[in-house]
């Protein structure tokens, strides 16, 4: 494992602890503190605080995702088609199976628009879980999980861009396309041009965070690595924890928990994250292995099931998609409870399997 990968994994793992702390703070604030929802819906210029975090600051998170994708495709684990095939197939299986389970359970009923919620993997929490297990998990397993999560992010970004765009404006979309060309030609001006691209994408109707991904993919590798080195800690320790603080607050009083437990939407998300990811990632990988694929060096096959379970920790991107999918606050709250429960169960299952795998 290279020093570059170790640094990325370290930041993501430590960032997972920061996200966990922010999540706990959000839950305490929503249930014991002053007006949680009122604060985050405070107007600040053209957007409220909630949208400044979700649409604005999260563009930095997606910029880091774009940079990591670019690096892995150009000079990393996704560079060679044969090497990339196994985690790519695993990620596809881990996206398709949760969607199938969700759609089958919801069956076009309330919350059907949230079909993509359960297909996401939270890199920070999943990598954090692996990090906490220390040397009980092989380096090959860490690399495989990171590659699966990166391809998963690519798919999630495509889903957000294609299926969760609203009222697309062709004029602003053309302006965004022109800015993409300019950034490609003059990458050193990525920051001011990136801000303009964010405005154009936001006004186009496509979710503004896609601008961050685009900039990350456009930057040359040398510039991108410097940008990622400087901004990744800000993304891991400030932006994503702040996103958790702004989105993870759920009020459990007033019968909300009882309503959630009787909601098909909640159980569809839980089943998608826990069973869908486990079956999808492991099933697709085993099929690829039978076809001649090979696991990363040093990764025992028994650890595959722990990775597949850990991939069900959907948290950050799942919350993000839930906020895009639903206009009804009640559905958003139920989706959050499903995401919390599914991610927690997936994390505990992944921990149990990986702990036992190394002892065996």
UniProtKB/TrEMBL annotation:
List where in the cell it is found.
Cell inner membrane; Cell membrane
Membrane topology, record value: Multi-pass membrane protein
Q: Does the keyword Transmembrane apply?
A: yes
Q: Which NCBIfam families match?
A: NhaA
Q: Which organism is it from?
A: Solirubrobacter deserti
Any signal peptide, and if so, which residues?
Answer: none
Record-given protein name: Na(+)/H(+) antiporter NhaA
Gene, per the UniProt record: nhaA
Q: Which family is this sequence assigned to?
A: Belongs to the NhaA Na(+)/H(+) (TC 2.A.33) antiporter family.
């Amino acid at each position: 494992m290279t020093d570059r990968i170790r640094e990325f994994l370290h930041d993501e793992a430590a960032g997972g602890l920061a996200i966990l702390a922010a999540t706990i703070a959000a839950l305490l604030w929503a249930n014991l503190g002053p007006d949680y929802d009122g604060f985050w819906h405070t107007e600040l210029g053209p957007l409220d605080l909630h949208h400044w975090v979700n649409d604005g600051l999260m563009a930095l998170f997606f910029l880091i995702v774009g940079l990591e994708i670019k690096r892995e495709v150009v000079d990393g684990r996704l560079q060679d088609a044969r090497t990339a095939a196994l985690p790519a197939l695993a990620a596809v299986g881990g996206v398709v199976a949760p969607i199938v389970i969700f759609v089958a359970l919801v069956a076009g009923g309330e919350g059907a628009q949230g079909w993509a919620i359960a297909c996401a993997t939270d890199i920070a929490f999943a990598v954090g879980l692996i990090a906490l297990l220390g040397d009980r998990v092989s380096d090959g397993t860490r690399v495989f999980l990171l590659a699966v999560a990166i391809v998963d992010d690519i798919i999630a970004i495509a889903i957000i861009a294609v299926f969760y765009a609203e009222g697309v404006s062709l004029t602003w979309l053309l302006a965004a396309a022109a800015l993409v060309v300019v950034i490609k030609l003059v990458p050193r001006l990525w920051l001011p041009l990136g801000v303009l691209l964010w405005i154009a994408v936001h006004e186009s109707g496509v979710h503004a965070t896609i601008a961050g991904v685009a900039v990350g993919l456009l930057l040359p590798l040398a510039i991108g690595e410097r940008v990622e080195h400087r901004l990744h800690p800000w993304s891991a320790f400030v932006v994503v924890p702040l996103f958790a603080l702004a989105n993870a607050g759920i009020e459990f009083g007033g019968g909300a928990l009882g309503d959630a437990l009787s909601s098909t939407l909640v159980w569809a998300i839980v089943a998608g994250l826990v069973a869908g990811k486990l079956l999808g990632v492991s099933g697709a990988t085993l099929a690829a292995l039978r076809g001649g694929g090979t696991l990363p060096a040093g990764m025992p096959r028994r650890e595959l099931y722990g990775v597949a379970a850990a991939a069900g920790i959907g948290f950050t991107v799942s919350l993000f998609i839930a906020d895009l999918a639903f206009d009804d606050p009640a559905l958003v709250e139920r989706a959050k409870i499903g995401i919390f429960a599914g991610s927690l169960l997936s994390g505990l299952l992944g921990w149990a399997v990986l702990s036992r795998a190394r002892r065996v």
